[in-house]
Amino acid sequence: MAALVCAAVVAAAPAAQAGPELNATDPRESGCARDSVITATVPLTDPSGAPTRLVITVRRSPGCDTRWIDLINPYPSGYAQVQTSIAVAYTDIATGHTGNTTGLHRSRQVFAPGRTCIEVGAVVIGAGRVLAGGTEPTMFC
């Protein structure tokens, strides 16, 4: 009697081809997050300019030529609303994310090949007031 053995192989989504069709798509679903690297971090301050625990992390996929931002919300779910934004500088290409849960908040990605300039920003609001961020966007080229 022969035994039949089957094995399933689960592969990650293949990385998408680089191009403007990646604008406003999810970096993980497109496969672009697989080769991502951190290119910058932006600490957020409170309205008085004092440092907070909140930091924007700017990520880039070399294979997809895209960039997006991550922000970890340490506040309890439902208390603080996180709003992130990323834009290709000097264009109308922009995307963002809004959420109110604890943990990772990731923007959609923008196609930004080579040294294309991007602008990133975030604001965290709780109890009707700004807890962090909300200043002018930061530009990276």
Describe the protein's architecture and organization.
With 141 residues, the chain is mainly β. The protein has one helix at 27-30; strands at residues 37-45, 51-61, 66-73, 80-88, 94-99, 103-106, 110-111, 118-126, 129-133, 138-140. Strands 1, 2, 3, 6 and 7 form a five-stranded antiparallel sheet that branches. The N and C termini lie far apart (65 Å).
What are the main properties of this structure?
single chain; 141 residues; disordered N terminus; mainly beta; 1 helix; 5-stranded antiparallel sheet; 10 strands
Helix/strand layout:
Layout: H1 27-30, E1 37-45, E2 51-61, E3 66-73, E4 80-88, E5 94-99, E6 103-106, E7 110-111, E8 118-126, E9 129-133, E10 138-140
Antiparallel strand pairs: 1-2, 2-3, 3-6, 3-7, 4-5, 4-8, 8-9, 8-10
Overview in brief:
The protein is mainly beta and 141 residues long.
Computed CA radius of gyration, to the nearest angstrom? 18 Å
Query: Which class of secondary structure composition applies to the elements?
Result: mainly beta
User: What is the count of helical runs?
Assistant: 1
Distance between the termini: 65 Å
Number of strands: 10
Which segments are poorly predicted (pLDDT under 50) over 5 or more consecutive residues?
A: 1-12
**What is the averaged pLDDT score?**
90
What is the N-to-C order of secondary-structure elements (H for helix, E for strand)?
HEEEEEEEEEE
Largest sheet: 5 strands, antiparallel
The fraction of residues in strands falls at over 45%
